[in-house]
Amino acid sequence: MSRFLFGDDLGNIKALRYQPDAATPEGKAKVKTLLPAAAGDAARVAAQKIAVCPGPSAESSLLATALSDGALALHSLSSADELETVCTWSEKRLKDNQFVGLAATSSSVISCTSNGALRRATFSTESSSPTQEDKASLPTRLRDWRLSSDFQSFTYGGEEVEVSVWNTEQAFQPPPQSETPASTGKKRKRSEALFPGEIWRAKNVPNDNLNLRVPVRITSLSFLPSSGSRQIVAGTLGNDIRRYDIRAARKPVSDWKGIGKVGGIKTLQPGFNEHELFASDHGTNLYAVDLRNGQVLYGYQGIAGAITSIAPSPTVIASTSLDRYVRTHDAYAPASKAGSRLEGKGTVTSKTYVNCIPTCIVWDGHDSSVDAAESDSSQADEPEDDVWDDMEEVSDDEEERVVVKKRNVKS
Length: 411
Hints:
Blueprint: E1 2-8, E2 13-18, E3 29-35, E4 47-54, E5 60-67, E6 71-78, E7 83-90, E8 99-104, E9 108-113, E10 117-122, E11 132-137, E12 142-147, E13 153-158, E14 161-167, H1 168-171, E15 198-201, E16 218-223, E17 231-236, E18 241-245, E19 254-256, E20 265-270, E21 276-281, E22 286-290, E23 296-299, E24 307-312, E25 317-321, E26 325-329, E27 348-353, E28 358-367, H2 368-390, H3 396-410
Antiparallel strand pairs: 1-2, 1-28, 2-3, 4-5, 5-6, 6-7, 8-9, 9-10, 10-11, 12-13, 13-14, 14-15, 16-17, 17-18, 18-19, 20-21, 21-22, 22-23, 24-25, 25-26, 26-27
């Protein structure tokens, strides 16, 4: 069984449990409301981002939420779907913008907005408000922000904002006074110098066939888990997917054209299989892509709305879409040799209609089927040991008497 957590356009936080061995298709996925939206005539407040920090066991996890009115909260989530609010705070700099990134660690929550407002809230389970809040400013017009798996760096991109990688700790340090340029009244030229705390910044692709500059329109990006924080994939408004290696060059090492079909790449999410990437556009397309050559392995059928969020897990993939469905999908690993035929194609295994439009979804980080298998294997080993412990020892004299008795019977 896998559990996914998702939010909707009214601010509800819900859980979806997927049981692949259910007797009926309707019983495979069950939805439960964990945190209902505030009642009343207040303005519509949507859940824009949601993040999970798995605990040491499946009994408890940390769940962070970011709403469209700037409210942020950290909750403690139990394995029984019981949600308890730990602390709350708000992002006053949000204004008319939106959250583009949210990440939770065991001691802090980091959020980022489209106007470049970066905030790190350090929390304690004994306090109802963050014990410390650090703020920083990034470029504006951001479309996506991601934290690396080791929490040491983050990346972002946006409208005329190239893909950039920053050191997390240095980003919250105050810039040196000498780095602040004096105002001369003249228009500043685009500088290639890195900001304080910035590790690497991408360079635009070459001009097109008419020798015109290609606009920078990054819509989605993600670190590749197998590379740590060294390789990044980014989707563009032109339906392309680019792969960057910050050790190799500033320009993309791969530029795959036309992966998306409608409105540009909307969501990118690496899968748990090697060389696997899931991508969606602003139409109804959800694809599995081979990271070795950029080939579309297969697409999922029967989706009637644009995919708003993707959440892979080791056993199943969950997605939310504008048609108010939360779906689960199976996946087939890319072949060991690039370009080879796959054993099968991914399909939609369940779909659950929810009353509101789901906006974001994450996996809770615990795979109960794996935990159950490990538990069963450990329990299966115990009876065998008990059998050997309960057996009585036989002396040499007793063995000789048994052999003589067998010989007399034969004669």
